[in-house]
Specification:
Two copies of one chain form a homodimer. Chain A contains twelve helices and 14 strands. In chain A, helix 8 links the parallel strand 8 and strand 9. The N and C termini of chain A lie far apart (87 Å). Chain A is elongated, with a radius of gyration of 27 Å. Chain A is an alpha/beta fold. Chain A folds into three domains: 46 residues, Orthogonal Bundle (434 Repressor (Amino-terminal Domain)), CATH 1.10.260; 127 residues, Response regulator (Rossmann fold), CATH 3.40.50.2300; 149 residues, 3-Layer(aba) Sandwich (Rossmann fold). The interface between A and B is large, with 62 and 61 residues.
DNA sequence: CCGGGTTGGTAATTCGTATAACCCAGCCCC
DNA sequence: GGGGCTGGGTTATACGAATTACCAACCCGG
């Protein structure tokens, strides 16, 4: 107990002793070092001994000498609390593993003290880089300490402009969603947003901007009464859909700025006895996999490409992150299901 | 570039030089080692120098000496793919952090080669222990290599009986769910299961056993036609609920063995024009947070205590895991919402 | 039979930290 | 005035792997 590393396992010295060679030989043989010549016999004996004794390299000794560890830090304000956000970790972890790296993950839950402490710990483990991920797209302040290592901001943008960021292309998403409804023949298209459009929520602002652009491009004059501010939850969809559909000039289609809002809208429409897509067409946003495919009918929505974004974050880190604050935007592809069809009037007017 | 550790940062030697003392003094002062005497002046100088230079301990050097790292491996076949499973990591990570430990997480996605390789890597990093977590409760085979470190199986049971396991108390859950419906006055209670009761799915087997026990305890004779095997998805709930309610003697209440099944049941009942809970009472299982609270009406269900289970796994590891294969079962508390009320007949017969 | 090349390996050092063992100056006390 | 204690530090070493420099033996040609 007094001796450190009491159950430390087999070391190269043990292997060397068993094979009757020096520790240096073991190292060189096991690592297949270039430019060394050893007899086949020696190689065989070393490999056999290593296998026999169940030798496993001590990563810490290696890192101590080489300076950089095979680990990447992943700090998020969520980890997996957000239902869909798991994808972002999954992507990051998969890409990291392809490079032989492991992820050191911490879910701060927004706790700044925990965040600072875990970043310190990660740095003391000489991580090759840090991914600083956010649960929802926003503009955030990155802790200064991250300047010491390669770092990238994921699913948000760095306010200071010091770090490369990765975020979804919200405006294009809003445009695509709206265009889908326009192409189906709709003219009165409402939007239930997930926040104010003058706030700091890029998703709300961007998706709305895309909605407006599509409308204008189609030569339509946006009706302010058709844009409603929800809260991103079911109730926001429910209440606003109810108001919209019982108003004087109800829309024939609704673009819900996220899937939860769309779900609330489904519930409101069901309560009003309106059918989707026959009476009202719907497009959502997020492609939340526990929700969108399982609604009846399946929800046509835009996918947040979290898997790819997670992968890309690691890739940037590995590429050395040119240390500029540029943001890389990812397109949100349309996922077609069954919540959109032509409007009644349109069909009938044929 | 040739020299290793080129940007290794400040070391104790740098601090020692700056403070005009030896490296040993720096170590002893910074670690507040017991049984040493240093003048206040020296302590001050050392601390000042350390702070000034931004000294951060090199965790690898420490581990190399001490033998054990401040990290715990977390291997799962999901990480966060399963919507609710994030809680399990969250709990584990939170508890680990309280002990000053970081989590090294890997999502294997069921890939055995990746699993083996990442376990090797974790062991080479001298993790203090490994949590082997499963997406759904089952009996699984733990890789032999885990015998080399403290390990605990989370949300499943180890077939070999070598490792302590943590799992939810399925039978009691099924009993509690059914009892809730019995207490409300229901007599014809159906169950839509999430798998066969002769299979290897403890959730399906256990919850059913609990259902039967509650029924028998109430002096009721279980009607075999009222127990249906679904698939754990919405469609399993939808199809079976439809069949159940359009049959000769429909139930007045349904226990759905998970929330997704319950959701499908909601959709089927809506289609039949039946109201919840007035026409049919419902109890679910899982308390899936993206689902159960947002259904209309809110779903009364049983909570899978993942947060606590995750915490407990780390706790067992820290306690040294007595290395027996006993399973610790966690109770699933009932979460009351609005999907249960008295049956019509019952109310009227008053 | 000596110089030089090749073959097959080893000794020694380095990374940064923790700690056991030791050392020295000053002071007290008999 | 010498022995012993105490306060205040230092020296040396180990942890495990990678790597550079070096070395010994052998072979071959002239």
């Amino acid at each position: 107990m007094n001796r450190p590393g009491s159950r430390s396992g087999t070391t190269m010295n043990d292997v060397a002793a068993a094979a009757g060679v020096s520790q240096a030989t073991v190292s060189l043989v096991l690592n297949d070092a270039a430019g060394t010549r050893f007899s086949e016999e020696t190689r065989r004996r070393v490999n056999a001994a290593a296998h026999e004794l169940g030798y496993r390299t001590n990563a810490h000794a290696k890192v101590l000498r080489d300076g950089v560890a095979g680990m990447i830090g992943f700090v998020g304000d969520f980890v997996a609390t957000a239902p869909f956000a798991g994808k972002i970790i999954e992507g990051a972890q998969a890409r990291a593993w392809e490079a032989g790296l492991l992820l050191l993950t911490v879910n701060t839950g927004g706790d700044k003290a925990l965040e600072a402490a875990s970043l310190e710990t990660m740095l003391s483990y000489k991580v090759a880089g840090v991914v600083y991920a956010a649960m929802y797209h926003r503009v955030l302040d990155v802790p200064d300490v991250l300047a010491e290592v390669p770092a990238v901001v994921l699913n948000s943008r760095d306010r200071s402009g010091r770090f490369p960021s990765i975020a979804p292309q919200e405006e294009l998403g809003g445009y695509t969603a709206t265009k889908r409804l326009l192409d189906a023949g709709h003219k009165r298209i409402a939007m239930i947003n997930i926040g104010a459009v003058d706030g700091e929520l890029p998703a709300a602002v961007g998706r709305y901007a895309g909605y407006l652009r599509a409308l204008k491009e189609a030569g339509l004059h946006p009706d302010p009464g058709l844009h409603r501010i929800g809260d991103g939850h079911e109730s926001g969809g429910f209440d606003n859909a109810l108001a919209l559909m019982t108003g004087p000039q109800p829309p024939t289609a609704i673009f819900c700025a996220n899937d939860r809002t769309a779900w609330g809208t489904y519930q409101a429409l069901a309560q009003l006895g309106l059918s989707i897509p026959h009476d009202v067409s719907l497009v959502g946003f997020d492609n939340q996999e526990t929700l969108a495919p399982h609604l009846r009918p399946g929800l046509t929505t835009l996918e947040l490409p979290f898997l790819e974004m997670g992968r890309r974050a690691i890739e940037l880190l590995l590429a050395g992150a040119e240390r500029d604050g540029s943001t890389e935007y990812f397109e949100c592809p349309l996922v077609e299901r069954h919540s959109v069809t032509a409007p009644l009037r349109f069909t009938h007017s044929h």
